[in-house]
Amino acid sequence: MDNKQYEQAMDRLKNNGVRITPQRQIILKYLIENDNHPTVETIFNVLDKTFPNLSMATVYNNLRLFKKLNLIIELPSIDGGYRYDFYDHPHLHATCDNCNKIIDIENPRFTEIEQELKDETREVGFKPTVSSISIHGICKECQVKLAKNK
Amino acid sequence: MDNKQYEQAMDRLKNNGVRITPQRQIILKYLIENDNHPTVETIFNVLDKTFPNLSMATVYNNLRLFKKLNLIIELPSIDGGYRYDFYDHPHLHATCDNCNKIIDIENPRFTEIEQELKDETREVGFKPTVSSISIHGICKECQVKLAKNK
DNA sequence: TTGGATGCAAAGCTTTTGCACCTTT
DNA sequence: AAAGGTGCAAAAGCTTTGCATCCAA
């Protein structure tokens, strides 16, 4: 794990007068170490194994808190729920509308594009924080799957 | 209203074997004529006035259908719900995380940027359809409001 | 020490579904 | 005439909240 990300996240909590609890630590660590864009339930199920008595409410409450502090971003899934992603460097998301998987796409030009989009919002007096940039469509695997079912 | 958008939407329904009902017509018309990014409830409340006995379930069902046909896009709001937007030409959304307002930002370069992002997903075998591109932050009005409350 | 955080359970929403009736094709 | 869609109400899910207890600072 990139420890710097974790330390910076802890600092952001401290600077906002938010207490550092084991629950907050493991949730953030999980999000930093995994780029699987988990649902709330996935996060809960995985962490509950090694941290019994963890409460779903705590996961919900803390995800909401982290989102407000711009530590994570929330990605809508076509299945109705949300997926969560630690907001490290901005990157492109490709969301499969068939299996709901979210794929990270890295590209050196992306930071530049994000900057350009943020600048555009500044022109109308907006104060940008994070970006949520997704391309919807069908992933490679599902294209094959869907073709077979015809 | 741009009638072409409406006609094209109707064609897309027909081509997919979907029946054209008055409910579908008024919901689509409403979304085409308004760029206020309404919630499900707003859509229901406005349309129910002139179309009594409209059912919330019908609004939900049809929004889901339109989304699947890529006629509209669904934008997550920090208040937990979603906002809907007729998917005409791609454009940038600035989402205020304080008042939940969504602002359309038009820029001639945007189509080009969207194309570039879609191309990036194609490189990993993805088949892109629509984009959902939002910059989160605080709008002009809320910046003033929040400064006053200090 | 003490205000904030957690866990549990209950409440509150939002969204979907079942079914009888109605409408488009 | 038949397949599909609608409205209503009930069910199902998801998310938040109240409160007693616990713990980080």
Task: Give a topology summary.
The structure is a homodimer of 150-residue chains.
Chain A: H1 3-15, H2 22-33, H3 40-50, H4 56-68, E1 72-76, E2 82-86, E3 92-96, E4 102-105, H5 110-122, E5 127-138, H6 140-148
Parallel strand pairs in A: 3-5
Antiparallel strand pairs in A: 1-2, 3-4
Chain A binds a DNA duplex (25 and 25 nucleotides) through helix 4.
Q: How would you describe what is shown here?
A:
Two copies of one chain form a homodimer. Chain A has six helices and five strands. The first copy, chain A, is α+β, with helices and mostly antiparallel strands and 150 residues long. The first copy, chain A, folds into two domains: 87 residues, Arc Repressor Mutant, subunit A (Orthogonal Bundle); 62 residues, Ferric-uptake regulator, C-terminal dimerisarion domain (Dna Ligase, domain 1, 2-Layer Sandwich). In chain A, strands 4-3-5 form a three-stranded mixed beta sheet. In chain A, strands 1-2 form a two-stranded antiparallel ribbon. The interface between A and B is large, with 41 and 40 residues. The structure holds a DNA duplex (25 and 25 nucleotides).
